[in-house]
């Protein structure tokens, strides 16, 4: 369960401390690990981030796999920590088009788009079921 960064060293959203502010994710993660056994028996789960890259580029199956792998860089730029043992993070890439494009360029663009999508999703989300969103944090 990682915090979402603003790209400038601050947090947009994440684990909240007792005072309602976003706390350091490594400290929160250490506390979570200490309680992991009890939480697992109670049915608690970790966070999973899922994304999809769609392009009109003419890519092979192998190239799509690489685009999906590189798009994970966007997760790493926007979420910290990310890809922990308890996460089920996944990105799928689909290419449907006739446009000739360099797969490396598509990959780089996909990573940047994924980073922006994570931040935009968090910034535009609304709290629900008693959970706060970034807009609730001010």
Task: Explain what the structure shows.
With 138 residues, the chain is α+β, with helices and mostly antiparallel strands. The chain has a single domain (3-137), classed as L-amino peptidase D-ALA esterase/amidase. It contains four helices and five strands, in the order E-E-H-E-H-E-E-H-H. The strands form two sheets. The protein has a three-stranded antiparallel β-sheet. Strands 3-5 form a two-stranded parallel ribbon. A hairpin with a 5-residue loop joins strand 1 and strand 2 (11-13). Helix 2 crosses helix 3. The chain is elongated and about 55 Å long. 26% of the residues are buried. The mean pLDDT is 87.
Q: Structural class given helices, strands, pairing?
A: alpha+beta
Number of strands: 5
Number of domains: 1
Question: What's the helix count?
Answer: 4
At CATH level 2, the architecture is 4-Layer Sandwich
Over the alpha carbons, how many angstroms does the gyration radius reach? 17 Å
Shape: elongated
Q: Indicate the CATH class.
A: Alpha Beta
| Poorly predicted runs | none
CATH homologous group name: L-amino peptidase D-ALA esterase/amidase
Terminal CA distance reads: 21 Å
CATH topology: L-amino peptidase D-ALA esterase/amidase
Strand percentage lies at: 15-25%
Q: Provide the helix percentage.
A: 40-55%
The succession of helices and strands, N to C, reads EEHEHEEHH
Please state the average pLDDT score. 87
**Which sequence of strands runs across the widest sheet?**
2-1-4
SSE layout and pairing:
Elements: E1 3-5, E2 11-13, H1 25-41, E3 50-57, H2 61-78, E4 79-80, E5 90-99, H3 103-124, H4 134-137
């Amino acid at each position: 369960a990682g915090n979402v960064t603003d790209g400038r060293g601050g947090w947009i959203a994440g684990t909240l401390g007792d005072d309602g502010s976003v706390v350091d994710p490594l400290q929160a993660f250490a506390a979570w690990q200490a309680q992991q056994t009890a939480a697992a028996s109670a049915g608690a789960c970790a966070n999973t981030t899922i994304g999809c890259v769609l392009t009109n580029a003419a890519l092979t199956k192998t190239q799509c796999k690489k685009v999906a792998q590189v798009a994970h860089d966007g997760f790493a730029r926007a979420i910290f920590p990310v890809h922990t043992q308890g996460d089920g993070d996944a990105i799928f890439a689909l290419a449907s088009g006739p446009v000739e494009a360099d797969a490396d360029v598509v990959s780089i663009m996909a990573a940047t788009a994924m980073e922006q999508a994570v931040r935009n999703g968090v910034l535009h989300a609304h709290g629900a079921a008693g959970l706060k969103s970034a807009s609730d944090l001010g």
